[in-house]
Task: inverse folding
């Protein structure tokens, strides 16, 4: 400070501390300046004049891009990429409808909202609004009439079903465990979900779409189950090696039960999606991210193209339409502003 009696410093927010403390301390946060505040600078006014404070305020805005995977690439980079006009309180995107004409996304803060949108970003329609601390879009029923999602209400995360046009949700899970990341089976009879009801390590379970007793599918950990297009196999990410949003193996198990086998040795836990043509996934390379496709026929991996911008930090999802035409890729935009405080004392 100009009087030499205090020091102003930043640790995500602005703090002030006496310069003559006998013992180390934190001082006190400057309550009048809310939100992110970094790199403060203070003017040196004449005696009797108030000081002016300037600082940086940064906001990391997560949005996503709609990528046309069928369009030509230039220098291996996707060109047909369209930003989605997401609301400022956007949380995350979900799966495409079976016909590829719509997708869903969530927004907040509470009450959290689930939306559907046309693939071009228009015709946004609110499906539900709930008082929850977390909401994640799941998938559509095979006929496109219903949506499954999970939400944390009163401290418990459970799976719900609602009609795609809105209405009263129907709760499917009732255990005091973490139940979520849900998806519909190919025939519409089952809903797969990730659950910790058997222990701290999450596994894949399934429950009848009309409600009933859940059955455990995997025994060694599993997250984000998706059925193959022919309904014969279930694909999922195994237990992440760096926490729930880290690196996993992509696994396969017969829908009727059987051995759990590895398809890909390394991929980001939520950066993959099953479509008719194969399994699409994001690969992080030095300097860029790319979208690759694992073929069901020969198990070969083909690079489709590079992304002009990095995908959002680990924890976001990749969603691809059933026909393999469209991809939703989350991206983070860092916005930094300079803020001025007059008469700072």
Result:
């Amino acid at each position: 400070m100009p009087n030499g009696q205090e020091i102003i410093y930043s640790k995500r927010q602005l703090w002030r501390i006496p310069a003559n403390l006998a013992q180390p301390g934190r001082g006190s946060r400057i309550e009048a300046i809310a939100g992110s505040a970094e790199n403060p600078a203070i003017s040196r006014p004449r005696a009797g004049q108030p000081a002016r404070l300037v600082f940086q305020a940064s906001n990391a805005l997560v949005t996503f891009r709609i990528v046309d995977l069928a369009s030509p690439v230039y220098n291996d980079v996707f060109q047909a990429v369209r930003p989605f006009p997401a609301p400022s309180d956007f949380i995350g995107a979900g799966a495409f409808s079976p016909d590829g004409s719509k997708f869903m996304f969530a927004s907040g803060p509470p009450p959290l909202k689930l939306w559907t949108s046309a693939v071009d970003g228009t015709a946004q329609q609110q499906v539900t609004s709930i008082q929850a601390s977390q909401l994640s879009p799941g998938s559509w029923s095979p006929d496109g009439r219903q949506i499954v999602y999970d939400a944390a209400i009163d401290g418990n995360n459970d799976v719900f079903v609602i009609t795609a046009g809105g209405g009263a949700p129907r709760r499917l899970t009732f255990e005091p465990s973490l139940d979520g990341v849900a998806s519909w089976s190919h025939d519409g009879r089952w809903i797969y979900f990730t659950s910790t009801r058997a222990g701290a390590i999450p596994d894949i379970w399934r429950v009848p779409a009309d409600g009933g007793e859940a059955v455990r599918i995997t025994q060694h950990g599993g997250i984000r189950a998706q059925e193959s297009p022919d309904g014969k196999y279930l694909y999922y990410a195994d237990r992440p090696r760096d926490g729930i949003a880290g690196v996993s193996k992509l696994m396969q198990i017969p829908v009727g039960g059987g051995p759990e086998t590895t398809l890909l040795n390394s991929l980001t836990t939520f950066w993959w999606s099953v479509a008719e043509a194969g399994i699409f996934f994001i690969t992080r390379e030095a300097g860029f991210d790319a979208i690759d496709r694992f073929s069901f026929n020969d198990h070969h991996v083909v690079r489709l193209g590079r992304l002009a911008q990095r995908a959002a930090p680990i924890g976001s999802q990749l969603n691809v339409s059933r026909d393999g035409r469209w991809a939703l890729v989350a991206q983070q935009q860092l916005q930094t502003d300079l803020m001025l405080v007059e008469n700072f004392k």
Notes: The chain has a mean pLDDT of 91. The chain has two domains: 6-58+335-344, 59-333. The longest strand covers residues 326-344.
